Input
Amino acid sequence: MTEKKVNISEQTCNLSKVLDILGGKWAMPIIYILSKETMRFKEIERGIEGINTRMLVKELKNMEANGIVTRKVFATVPPTVEYTLTPKGQKLLPSITALYNWGQEFAV
Output
């Protein structure tokens, strides 16, 4: 029996694009915590165990650039910044839930 090789170019693979957007370790926990409500930066940081400020900033910038979250700055002293999931980000929730359920069954 001969194996048929599949030729998939990394540049055209949709999965590769998704992993570029959500490839960070912290992206899914951030999306999950923001699915509950709009949150300030420190609330997100306190809500995700183990994340540091530098990584949270990096992930939020990446997610904002990819249209997953919106960032709203209020002109207060000190400045108040709130993050909200976009409709595009909301559409990720069923996939994240499915991955969570798979992990509960097989990664335990």
Residues 93-106 form the longest helix (14 residues). The chain is about 50% helix and 15% strand. Residues 28-106 form a domain with the Arc Repressor Mutant, subunit A fold (CATH 1.10.10.10).
